[in-house]
């Protein structure tokens, strides 16, 4: 019997454990921290062995295969020991894909990947396909493979998950964009991070597709130097293609082998240029999967967006409060500030991943009237933006941040939470941060 050790007892770890047991593996789950009670119950129900509060090396190093949760860095001592011993260390995406014949749509990118994944999933649901929507969001992909019979998966995949793939080959891959992010995990080398994203296409064949943003010089330069086998379907706001998606006379056009889909951009439910690109990517996927054009159109007109992504929370005294907690990097915050049409009180900060804030200077000068730094260490933000605005304050609590914002904001202003940073200094994750923001706003 083959033995699999699973590092991390969260959603992907527990899902992998269930699938591995079903496929006849001897399973051991090990978490360096604490395993959530709900997950403990699941592990017990499936009679799986587990430990928490540290790794017992002897019980892990004797495995034939190890699945590592995406949050655990390659630099972790246990991972180094496994690599030295020659034990294969893979991601949940790799493991689960070995046990399904479903059509796989895989979506990655520094920003826009959740919206594109949810939008694509929504179109397929409206078409009656019952897709599995998983990966970096929602339920565990491995658990879905173990417990449901799904014909099409739409997977949001992070670079960390791609680092652990070997043979994974999606039929349709999407790269929304690539901007510097998570550089702390890639030795602060941007090219390592780019290479990681392109692993999504490394095993694709001539009969597969790669959909990508042709306006992104990082992507187009990389493709010139490292060609892929799959068919390329670019999308762009500025250029037209024989095969791909583009804008013509205010219409979103998707052309694939003389088959054309068009709809007016005025009717897209999600506003802003970055969302037009997300819609291009999702509609290209949907056209490849032969979804009815009317269904695609109706879905793009009706989709309501993703929680914690430019989510309009409440208007109080004519001030709009906006939750963009999902903006965990500079590029995402760039989109958010760019879409502000009123003077903005900006709440920013958290765990900096090697951010370069210079890209935001012009927007901050143009749009931001006050800055509230919400983090344990705000020195870098203070030095970058201290001279740009009249009001810049530091606070370690969300409630306090909202109270200050309430005092500073005037009629017609926006209060925007768009942190540009990870959340782990003060919050469990970006969802927790976003929910605390919404709760504090409702308590005003």
From TrEMBL:
GO cellular component annotations of the record: cytoplasm
The protein's name: UDP-N-acetylmuramoylalanine--D-glutamate ligase
Gene behind this protein: murD
Keywords, alphabetical: ATP-binding, Cell cycle, Cell division, Cell shape, Cell wall biogenesis/degradation, Cytoplasm, Ligase, Nucleotide-binding, Peptidoglycan synthesis
Transmembrane segments: none
Entry-linked InterPro entries: Mur-like_cat_sf, Mur_ligase_C, Mur_ligase_C_dom_sf, Mur_ligase_cen, MurD
Residues reported in the UniProt entry to bind ATP: 109-115
EC numbers for this chain: 6.3.2.9
